[in-house]
Every structure is written in structure tokens, then in C-alpha cells.
Amino acid sequence: MPIHRCATFLIPALDCPEEFRLIRAGLEPVPGVIEITPVYLQRSLKVTYDPGRVEAQRLARRLQEIGFAPQSVAESPTTDGQSPLSRNRAATVFDRRAQSTMVGALLLIVAVLWQLAQPGVLGPRILAVLSALIGGIPVLAAATRALRLRRIDMNMLMSLAAIGALLTAPRSGEWFEAPTAVCLFGVALWLERSAMDRARRAVESLLTLYPAVAHRRDADHQIHDVALDQIVTGDRILVLPGERFPTDGVVEQGESWVNSSAITGESTPFDASPRSTVRSGSLNGEGVLELRVTHPAAESTLANIARLIEQAQSRRSETERFVDRFARWYTPLVVALAIVIATLPWMADGLALTGLPDWNREAWNLEAASRGDWLHRGLVLLVIACPCALVLSTPLTIVCGLRQAARGGILVKGGASLEAAGKVTAIAFDKTGTLTQAQPCVVSTHPHPGVTVDSLLSVAASIESRSEHPIAQAIVQYARDAGIDLRAVTDSVVLRGSGVQGTIDGVVYRATHRTALEQWHGEGIAGRAREGTAIDAEPQGDTVVWIGSQSRILGAMVLSDAIRDDARNALDQLRRRGIQNLFMLTGDRMESAQRVAQQLGIVEFQAGLLPDQKLDAVVRLRDKFPLLAMVGDGVNDGPALAAARVGIALGAEASDTAMETADVVILAPQLSKLAQLIDLSRATRRLLWQNVFLALTIKAIVLGIAAVGHGTLWLAVAADVGASLLVIFNGMRILDSKVL
Fold it and tell me: Catalytic site residues?
């Protein structure tokens, strides 16, 4: 596979799809350009290209030629069109365009005050013209850029309207229309850039979670502060109290509490001890922890979050694609309508020359004296035709929705996935690690008559403490949670395939299964064990560990792959949101699957599925429920996640395959996040369509008023600016949403 390269250009003028359309029109014809991706939050452009046919400097020169000169260029090799995580900081919104708007606004204010103080003098008119010219310089420059690329954009529409207003001002006496239109247009663009900057700062706040340096323990056991890019897998680093973890790792020494709310959205800190996994960006509590690095900083959880948000901006939602298609024909159509209205008197002269008997000029009020009025109506239509509010609202709302999801520990890979999540009608779940905890857990204890629960746990946990087996660790953890002290054990032996054995106070004890118990004790004592212990039969799908000495049975403990604490409530939340079709697909045994399904109220499930069979099951469900989501965490779930309409990987411990394949990654292993994801998706979609409705409704009303001759540039500009501000701030309400 040929290795392409990716160049990242920092372009201060890149704010919204309007600019990107011009850039795409200018770059796509360049030989060797493979893919062009905008990153609005960083005002940067990523271009994947063939280095054998074009160089990055040639692309930079082309960008400068079309009026989008880049401030910086960064290159990196890539085989998949994706670039490394960019940390470019966008330029301030107070640029030359904002400065021109400010100077023009000041001149306009002086002109208006002068006109009020001395009506009829020439000075205010001169200042008004200067205001329009100074404030309109960047608008005219941008319009010229679009004209060279054979595109009609909002800058061209505003330029034509302002020039027309200045030309008709001597006849109409409306000297302040053109400068007011230009000024308000500049203010609207500045406010829009400020709103995008707020979203940008929200995303860039993720990068502030990185500490400045990492405390690495070298081979000579000395501690040195090093830059994060010098940390590699396997390094040992110290994290002091109150510091954030610079990368992902496993605790080797120390105990502390860790707050991971900034990463997973889980507000409750967890206790970290040896073997605990911690994530970059999490906050260390009161203890010193020594970590073994499992991922360098550039590949850590925090870096992946920022990278996914960046990449997601190029994956447009259905609403964004609709708005783009609509704007493609909307703007030329309205421009054509404005031209027709402005030239109606001249068209009427042409019709009169044809000698049509039914043509009535007076009925249409098309006398020669009204030609200026009709030209003014056309100018009003040009202003209101600007699709600014329409095209700006959707990407900003989507970006805010993606950031809000990330704030709650939910990574959504694009606007399409964010919108689709709220429309799912059915969800298929993997069992192990998704609905259950994927590790054995003690669910009940059954002491023999005359034996206390504490005595049973003390012996079982003590002899199991020397084993690394998950079942042994589950028993030890259960005893510790119950406050049981472990006893001294000697002659500890692992019985391969059957359990463990150890000596406590001179007595040999075993923790094993029933068959091994019968072989050790003989049928007599085994029978008495079954009769005296309050457990009638081996529970289906569960594991039973029997504990006894050579002469006595202490009892039994039942372990199971425990259902997640929030599983029942999470499924109930989904049902309350109208998602009644819940399925379970698992490769586990039928008995275990049936037990979990019964406890969670899942009616339809399939067990014993291999990865290809799970994929086939998802395909069949998708044929019946096109808007199907699949939730899983394992390598074997990868094909099924890819086949579903929305694939959701659960937990930061999910396999790399699941996380790469899924459309959504929920970092905290909490099924309750599914309902939050759906709520956020639906709230985002509501805001998107509210914005589309508001923008189109306002424009339709003003277009109607202008068409019948009652519109003014004041009204058109106020409507355009007002609609833009309305949809921008309405879309940003998602940042203050309480659904997460």
C-alpha cells in the first residue's frame, strides 16, 4: 500500500463550511490531492496527498493564491489518511476583519450623532460612505476570492447589496443603509467566530489535563522530570498527590484514591492499589503512586479522546448533509429571484414592445419612476439571501454535542453517529463484560451446620490467597469486603484443574469442586456434605467451590459472572425511552445466558455464538430493525459492532478492536450511559431542526415582505444578523445540557 502524507495547515480564516467550500474548490483540482478535511475547532485543514505528485509547499502556495494563506504547516506520514493529534492553537478572533468592522462602526456612530445634531450637512454622509468602505474592505476581498473560484457566497451577496445601496443613496437619501448593513454583517461574523471559539476552548480544555512533565524512575532508581513525549511503554513513573496522570498505566506500588471524572464522567473516585489500571488525565488523591506505563502519552486515553473529537468533525450528520444540499441550490435561486425583481421594470418594457394586449403596467406599478424602488427590493433580497444562519448553525451544534458527550465520558465518532444514536429502535447486547462484570464474584455462601459464615470465609480466603486464579481472587476480595482477617497458611499447593490446598494450624484444607471432593473424602463424607450444606444442586451456569479438611466439610461458596450493578436500571431506562426491543447475543453457555436473561427481563437471546455467528445474528436483526445498536466490549464483538447501525464499545477496558470498530465508545463501564447518550442525541437533533426551522422561517417572512415592496436593508440586515445569532446561541445550549 503506498504511503501517503498528511499536511496540516493552520488557517485563521477557516471558520465554517462556507470557507471550506471555497478551499475545496481551489484544492481539489490540484493533482495528487487525495482527501481534504476541515477541523473548524482548530481553524486548520488536513490534506492527504501523494508526495510523488505534489508537495506540501505547493499546497500552501495554492492556499495563498485562493486567499487562505496558512500560518503554519505540519507534515506527517500516514497510510490511512489520518494525521496525528494536532495541538495548534487558533488565532484570536480579533483579526483584521474585526478591526475593520470596529473602525467602520465607530465612523458610523459619529456620522449618526453628527446627523442628529446638524441635519442636512454633508459631513455625516461622507463619514457614512467611509464607514461602508472601511468596514466593507474585508467583505469585498472575500467576495473577490469567491468570484475567482466561480462561487457565490454570503460575502458576494453582501458586497453587491452594499454597493447597490451606495449607488442608490443619492436618489433615495438613505445614506446610512449601506454602512449599517456592512457593520451589522461584520458584527454577526465576529460573534459567530466568538461562539466557535467557546466550543474550541471547551475541547482544548482536554489538553490542559496533561501535566507539564512526568516523574520517571530510571534504571539507577533516580527520579527525573522528563517531557511527556519521552515516556515509552514499560517506563516507571511516579504520580504525586494532587497531580494528574500523564499517561495510561498500571499501579505497581502505592495506594490512593483517583478521580477520573474528567475522563469517564464518573463522579465517584475509586481506590487505586497495586494492579489497578489508571487513565491519563485522571487526578491522583492523597497517596504517591508508582505506575508501569502501558501507553505513551500520544496513544493514551486522553489523547485518543481529543483525536476522536477532532476526527469526528469530518463525519457530517444527516442534518448537515441536508443543509449543504439545500444551500447549494438555495443561494443561486434567491440571487436569480433578486435579479428578476430588480430588473422587472426593464423586463416590462420588453413585454410592452411585444404588443401583448393583456399586459397592464399600471397594475404591476412598473412605471419608470419606480425603477429605483425595484432595484432596492432586489438589494434587500440579496442581503436576506445570505445562508449564514443556515450553514453556521449545524456544525456548531454538532461540535458542541460531541464535546458535551466527551465531557460525560462518551466518545462519539462524528455527527452522523450522534444523530443516529437517538433514533435507534432496538439494541443487541453482548453478555460477558457488557451486561455482566466479566469476572467471577461470590453470590452466596452455604456453611455446613455448626460452621459460621466467618469461619468458612476465613479458611477459604486464606488458602485461596496464594493463588492467582480469578476465582481465588474473587473469594479473597469477598472476604476482605466482609472484614475477615486472613490466617497464616503453610504448605500451599495449587491442585491443577481442581483448586488449592493449604495447611492452617496443622489442619489440611482444600477448596475444590464436588468431584474432587468426592475423590478426596470418599462417597460417605461427600454425601454428608451434600446433605448438611444448604445447597441442593449445582446452580445452572454458576461455579460452586467446596471447602473442607480431611475429616470435615466447612461448606460451599457459589460464584457467578455477576450482573453489573446498574444493568437492570439501565435496561429499564432504555425501555422508558421507547426502546422495547432488547436482545442478548453471547458466546457463553445456554444455562448462563438464560440465567442472565431472566434476571434482566430480556426475552430474546442467543447463546453459544462464535464471532461469525454473532455477526450473522446482528445482520438478521438489522434487516428487521434497520436502526439497530450493538453494545459489546470484546475482540469477538468487532464484526457485530461494525455491522450494526450504531456500534457502541463499553468501557475503557474494551478491546482495541471493539474501540476502533465502534461508532461510540463509553469510557466508564456503566450501562446507564446508554440512556444519557440517547438523551443527548435527541436533544442535539431537536436543536438542529429548531435552527433549520428558525433560519428558514425568518428568511421566508422577510423575503415575502421585500417582494411586495415593504422591505428595507435595515430589516434585511436585522433579520439576517438576528437569525444568525439566534441559531448560534440556540445550538450552544447543548453545552449547558443537564442530560449528562
Answer: 430
Rg (CA), the chain: 34
Answer yes or no: pTM beyond 0.70: no
Residues in the chain: 740
Give CA–CA dist 438/441, Å, rounded.
Answer: 9
For residue 454 the three cell numbers come to: 466467618
Buried b (16+ CB within 10 A) or exposed e, 676-686: bbbbbbbbbbe
Contacts for 294 with CB less than 8 Å, ≥ 6 apart: 233, 247, 248, 249, 250, 277
The residue among 41, 36, 17 whose CA lies nearest residue 89 is 41
Q: What is the DSSP letter of 24?
A: H
Burial class (CB in 10 A: 0-12, 13-18, 19+), 204: middle
Best CATH choice for the domain 438-562 from the list 3.20.20.80, 3.40.50.980, 3.40.1110.10, 2.40.420.20: 3.40.1110.10
Q: What are phi and psi of 454, to 5 degrees?
A: -65, -40
CATH among 3.30.70.100, 3.40.50.1980, 3.30.70.20, 3.40.980.10 for 4-78? 3.30.70.100
Averages of pLDDT over runs of 10 residues in the chain (740 residues) are: 76 74 85 83 81 88 86 60 40 65 88 86 88 87 80 74 77 78 77 64 62 86 86 91 89 86 61 84 86 86 66 56 66 75 68 49 48 71 67 72 82 83 93 82 85 91 84 88 88 77 89 75 51 52 80 84 87 94 87 86 88 87 92 80 88 68 83 92 88 81 72 70 77 71
- d(CA 246, CA 262) in angstroms, rounded, equals 13
